[in-house]
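Q: I'm writing up a methods section and want to include an example of the input and output format. Could you take the sequence below and give the corresponding predicted structure tokens, formatted cleanly so I can copy it straight into the document?
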Amino acid sequence: MGDIREKLEDNTKQVLDAFPGNAILGRGLEKLLLDRTEFDTEAKTELSKLREKIFSYSSAILKGKGQRRHQNFKVGVEFDLEEYRSEVAQQIGISALELGNQLYGDLPPFQKVLGFRKISAEGLLHRYNCAQIQGLLLRCEAMTIHLADSRSAKLRQLMKYLRFNKLLCSIRRNKDHGKSLVLEIDGPLSIFVNTQKYGFNLANFFPAILHQTRWELKAEVRIRKNQSHTLDLNQTCGIRSHYRQFISYVPEEIQLLSQQIANKIPAWELTSTADYLQFTGESVCFPDFLFTHSSGKKVAMELFHTWHAAPLVERLNQLDAQNSAPLLLGVNRNLLNNDELTERLESSLYFSRFGFYFRDGPTISKIIPLLDQWFKNVQKEL
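A: Here is the clean output for your methods example:
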């Protein structure tokens, strides 16, 4: 610590120049190490003001010199350059050395190293191998995951990572193996809506799979425009996840909604949930959040974002066929740009009763009427 980014990168360059293996591998390891390094990136207004003052004095000095001196400086005569620096520094009230150090002290090459998250050599290799898979998943067309044990706490952790990355998938039980689940996730190249963000979320989800005891992953990956390949992996790949136990993340808009509910309808409480809902047949739903009434009644809420068109259609079909379920549906208004999907939403009896639209996040004005209607409906069925 205490060095600057430029010096650190010069040191790593010396190592890479002598690296006996593949240069691409070496640069990849360097990138991962730099990602673990904390640099001082805080904007320093005092340096901006100093730079403005330096340029102002510099302009005045150059205008005051004769034409010959100006020309000599332009071609870089060393004596004139040093004289010029000293004269500017004198006007500013600092030394010439300080002038050179502070002039661009807030640019990336001069950012100070504040800290580094240590990692073992073995851990770095596992992180590198994991990153290789993540890079492929950025170009994924479709992904299928087979999980052998659907009752473990690790599975619930996986679902939390799924929701954290705003991914939805089709989840069903394996008919041949009742305890196992099959997860089918559309890749970014299959939806063409904000593919860069979606691909990044999908890649971020992969390390969570590595925590499962028994799993199989199959993904269709398009390396080039007309070249599609199949990626097959399972727990025997030996790659270790760098993710620690997941701490449930609650978005700011949901925290605000939870506070509003506590204030306006204290009979209800909004929390995250790791439980799943079983629909007709083998289909399973892991909702995002759970509303719990003081009477003990519970209803979940599932949110569908911009790239969730296909899962939304499937969910509407399930709910309309089943006609009742402890589930509220929230749909991002961006999905209404799809005329076919808009028509399907308008024709859904279930959505007309227990669904709502949102922009950035669900609002209490949308939620309260649905909770009231759902609770009355439950009371009638008793």
